[in-house]
């Protein structure tokens, strides 16, 4: 029975965090700029530093929201899960390098044929010039699709030069490259939703981490707040960790007789 109560409480908290994330206006959402693992360690350290004062804060500050601050580590976990979902959505599009390489090969094969036909006046020289001027992965992939359309009336010639069903293979390669480029930018529905949720949870982490620092400043002073609650971006600087460890070591070491 006790376990069920704890589980119910956990689910309620989870739903509350999701609701808080979705309640943010689009203009308020910030793109993720921190490593959730580093941020989680920073939040845990800050909570440990401030926790002795929780009772005092709850009594003296009615607006103090302890549940928000305690939710910070879980929020960081959610950022991590959502970030992995974005990466999974990107990977589902297949290997971008392989798809772009295949499309680039077809562009190199078909462009000379289009240029020769343009010189003979068989196809639009302006269109061939536009395709030739294409730059970057997106242009390259679209060029292949455009070349297939342009060379459609000359399918037998393309087949003789580049093998049976050359234009069909080229079109498939071009479309595949465009698809992969779209997925890598998070343009699938799954990718967009995962990226939006990742950034919403990340925005809450930023806000509530600021409140944790403000809490530390209220009980330990402004100068100590940044030391007690490390940065989300960098965590505890290595030099400070080393200095703290050396200090602890010195305090534990017995004095020489």
Structure explained in plain terms:
With 257 residues, the chain is mainly α. It folds into two domains: 19-91 and 198-239, no CATH class; 96-184, no CATH class. The chain is 76% helix and 0% strand. The protein contains 13 helices and no strands. It has helices spanning 2-22, 36-50, 54-60, 66-70, 72-91, 96-119, 125-132, 136-150, 155-162, 166-184, 189-220, 222-228, 238-252. Helix 6 crosses helix 8 (136-150), helix 6 (96-119) crosses helix 10 (166-184) and helix 11 packs across helix 12. The longest helix is centred in the last third of the chain and has 32 residues, at 189-220. The chain is rod-shaped. The termini are far apart.
Task: Describe the protein's topology.
Layout: H1 2-22, H2 36-50, H3 54-60, H4 66-70, H5 72-91, H6 96-119, H7 125-132, H8 136-150, H9 155-162, H10 166-184, H11 189-220, H12 222-228, H13 238-252
Helix pairs in contact: 1-11, 2-5, 2-11, 5-11, 6-7, 6-8, 6-10, 7-8, 8-10, 11-12
Alpha plus pi helix count: 13
Question: N-to-C terminal Cα separation, in Å?
Answer: 59 Å
> Helical residue percent?
over 70%
Structural class: mainly alpha
